[in-house]
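hiii so um. not sure if this is the right channel but i have a protein structure encoded as tokens and i wanna go backwards to a sequence. like what aa goes where. can anyone help
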């Protein structure tokens, strides 16, 4: 049995890939070109030099026991000791060698699997409700449509050179477990006039700038699925933005054109296709029924008490009488090769249609006769999985974070484990939280979909008394569903080391007061929940120790080394870089305000201004100074000695270096001048962290610029900033600095270039909690974005 069929051209594609690898090894194929070739085969280079990851396509996460065994054997022989289940319901093989890629590709093909279109600018693995076909609440089984569409699309040449990836999802009911409302093209099962069909969404997408899908068609009959999908694919192929990668996704095409114009264009492609006959999907039905081997004997559970709890947690009745589906949590999607092989061998006695991976990176069984549940229970006790953990724990999602990702700030998975440990320590019964999503991302890019979680987190870097520490923004109240999608709102920020106990307090409070607080999911959207999170965050912030008192706070979870964004390397444009720079400029503004209000002595202010100005941009040179003397010494060496800053400031910095009382009498004006200079220098910096000294004069003028001739129909007068020709991520950091001295509710208008700036900055601003009031494109192509500052 194969759940989808490999294209006839695959052998030829593999042979060509083998030639291209040989060309690359000889130096005849440039690395960028080779990258474009291999990612279309689902092959990605990893952080460890010379190693690769490969995805094996599994539409709906469906595979046979024999295929599972083969994947595990390939991983054992050529990769590492484990498989990794992804949020798009497929397995990844990690730490492959270049010389083994063709062998691995052929091994997978031998059992009907392929990584073709597993990455790159292709039509990716199609997500499908993992329980479609067995869930009693299904409108109907949507899996056959996705499987048939997969077979067609991976055989079509235009599926491999899109403007960017095209993701397609099929959800079987309004809970939208496959995220049809949050993907490029989504099909949601719908019955109309007694006929099967789909509601169609387009233009959704996750990432730092989340976009919810727009309803393209309220209903289409089932035989029109291929026509709609093909029309969207061709439309995207011919009209997508191929020049600007960060503007290439179909969600940006919908936004640029507007829903009405996009829909009108879609109908033109759709009408042309409908003139062709015979494009209906050839559905292959995979029956959900018992297929147990006659040789398999029924077993009684060897621990009746644990068996009962396990059934309550992870066993559900199928719509088919006498059959059950079983959920097997995998900790962060990890399944050891040895366990995968055992599982494949065990499941071989239950037929071929028995395995599904789910978007929460877990393993699911179907078509298990109730009388054989004892066999499954006894078998699972021999594996190293999360099969017997509370449901709430098994559903938690955490990205890799800073462990592997160059954009990651914090270590998301160890934090998630620490939260679980805290809840267990408190003996908190989490059974009633089953179904609540708890998603953790290591940075604002939101790879774990924390922005639509009931409880979400994203990592950031903060400082206390000049020392960097890991922290998280806490979000509450997200939800995903047909017509009910809500974005999680920002509630508070707390140190990473305080998150477990803070969440322990939060859950304990709900447990103690649930009679009056009501349903937990609804409570998470209430003002009282937000108030409690803020109150707890403030409580722990007040008791957070200095570095000298408890250095543990300045380490991330599971990391023996002091928290660092650079880790001894030159700074990259990651989210944490913003936090480090922003900290010092915020302190400078605070000191300036205190001076105006005569709330700080001039000699103290002079020292602190010199300190923060000197340290503000050291990170751009790969320097993380841990003490005041180190800051001043590094500034003299790298900025003054490097001729970035004039020698006229050397006496000031040397005086600060020699100061023993952290006071600089008679140095206030030079300190103010240095602070102003560093802000101007910062404004001159491009997205490669290089300074353009000729732009300093323009930057100083920009600080005093007032909007002229720009109409903003708002009560408040807008602060105006022109960030055209400022590349990412510096335009976002400058926006943060412009917002910092403003009061809540005041308006900032910024000008941005088309492309990456408009694609990235508004979404990042919203993640900071501010409101985007409008964004309009001018005739010359630039964008005017109006922002309302949030309450702080």
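sure thing!! here u go:
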């Amino acid at each position: 049995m194969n759940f989808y069929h490999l294209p006839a051209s695959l052998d030829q594609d593999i042979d060509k890939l083998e030639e291209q690898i040989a060309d690359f090894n000889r130096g005849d194929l440039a690395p960028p070109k080779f990258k474009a070739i291999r990612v279309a085969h689902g092959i990605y280079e990893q952080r460890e030099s010379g190693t690769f990851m490969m995805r094996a396509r599994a539409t709906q996460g469906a595979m046979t026991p024999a295929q599972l065994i083969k994947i595990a054997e390939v991983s054992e022989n050529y990769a590492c000791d484990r498989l990794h289940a992804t949020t798009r319901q497929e397995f990844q093989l990690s730490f492959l060698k270049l010389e083994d890629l063709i062998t691995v590709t052929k091994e997978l093909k031998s059992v009907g699997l392929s990584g073709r279109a597993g990455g790159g600018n292709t039509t990716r693995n199609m997500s499908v409700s993992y329980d479609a076909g067995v869930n009693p609440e299904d409108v109907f089984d949507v899996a056959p449509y996705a499987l048939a569409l997969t077979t067609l699309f991976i055989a079509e040449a235009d599926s491999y050179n899109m403007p960017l990836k095209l993701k397609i999802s099929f959800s079987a009911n309004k809970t939208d477990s496959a995220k049809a409302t949050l993907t490029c093209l989504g099909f949601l099962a719908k019955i109309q006039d007694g006929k099967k069909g789909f509601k169609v969404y387009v233009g959704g997408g996750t990432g730092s700038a989340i976009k919810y899908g727009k309803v393209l068609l309220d209903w289409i009959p089932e035989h029109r699925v291929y026509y709609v999908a093909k029309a969207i694919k061709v439309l995207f192929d011919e009209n997508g933005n191929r020049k600007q990668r960060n503007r290439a996704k179909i969600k940006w095409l919908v936004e640029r054109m507007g829903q009405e114009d996009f829909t009108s264009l879609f109908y033109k492609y759709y009408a042309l296709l409908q003139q062709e006959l015979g494009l209906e999907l050839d559905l292959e039905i995979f029956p959900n029924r018992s297929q147990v081997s006659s040789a398999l004997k029924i077993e009684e559970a060897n621990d009746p008490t644990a068996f009962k709890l396990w059934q309550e947690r992870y066993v559900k009745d199928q719509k088919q009488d006498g059959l059950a589906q079983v959920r097997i949590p995998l900790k962060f999607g990890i399944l050891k090769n040895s366990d995968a092989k055992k599982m494949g061998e065990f499941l071989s006695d239950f037929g071929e249609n028995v395995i599904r991976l789910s978007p929460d990176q877990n393993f699911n069984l179907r078509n298990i006769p109730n009388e054989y549940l004892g066999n499954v229970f006894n078998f699972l006790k021999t594996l190293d999985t999360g099969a017997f953990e509370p449901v709430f724990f098994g559903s938690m999602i955490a990205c890799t974070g800073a462990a592997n990702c160059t954009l990651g700030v914090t270590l998301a998975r160890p934090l998630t484990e620490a939260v679980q440990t805290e809840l267990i320590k408190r003996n908190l019964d989490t059974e009633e939280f089953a179904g609540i999503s708890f998603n953790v991302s290591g940075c604002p890019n939101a790879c774990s979909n924390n922005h639509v979680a009931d409880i979400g987190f994203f990592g950031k870097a903060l400082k206390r008394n000049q020392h960097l520490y890991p922290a998280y923004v806490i979000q509450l109240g997200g939800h995903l569903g047909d017509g009910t999608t809500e974005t999680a709102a920002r509630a508070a920020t707390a140190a990473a080391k305080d998150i477990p106990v803070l969440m322990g307090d939060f859950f304990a409070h709900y447990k103690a007061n649930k009679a009056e607080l009501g349903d937990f999911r609804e409570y998470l959207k209430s003002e009282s929940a937000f108030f409690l999170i803020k109150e707890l965050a403030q409580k722990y912030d007040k008791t957070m120790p200095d570095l000298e008192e408890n250095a543990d706070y300045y380490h991330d979870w599971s990391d023996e080394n002091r928290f660092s964004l650079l880790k001894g390397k030159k700074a990259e444009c990651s989210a944490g870089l913003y936090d480090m720079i922003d900290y010092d400029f915020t302190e400078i503004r605070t000191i300036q305000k205190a001076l105006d209000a005569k709330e700080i002595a001039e000699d103290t202010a002079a020292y602190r201004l010199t300190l923060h100005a000197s340290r503000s941009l050291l990170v751009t040179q790969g320097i993380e100074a841990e003490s005041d003397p180190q800051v001043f010494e590094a500034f003299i060496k790298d900025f003054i000695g490097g001729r970035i800053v004039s020698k006229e400031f050397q006496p000031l910095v040397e005086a600060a270096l020699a100061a023993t009382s952290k006071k600089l009498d008679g140095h206030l004006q030079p300190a103010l001048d240095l602070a102003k200079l560093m802000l101007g220098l910062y404004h001159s910096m491009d997205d490669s962290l290089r300074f353009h000294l000729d732009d300093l004069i323009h930057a100083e003028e920009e600080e005093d610029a007032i909007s002229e001739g720009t109409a903003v129909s708002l009560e408040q007068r807008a602060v105006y900033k022109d960030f055209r020709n400022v590349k990412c991520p510096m335009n976002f950091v400058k926006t943060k600095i412009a917002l910092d001295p403003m009061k809540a509710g005041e308006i900032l208008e910024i000008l941005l270039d088309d492309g990456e700036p408009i694609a990235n900055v508004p979404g990042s601003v919203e993640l900071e909690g501010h409101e985007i009031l409008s964004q309009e494109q001018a005739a010359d192509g630039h964008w005017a974005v109006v922002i309302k500052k949030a309450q702080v």
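oh and Residues 575-596 form the longest helix (22 residues).
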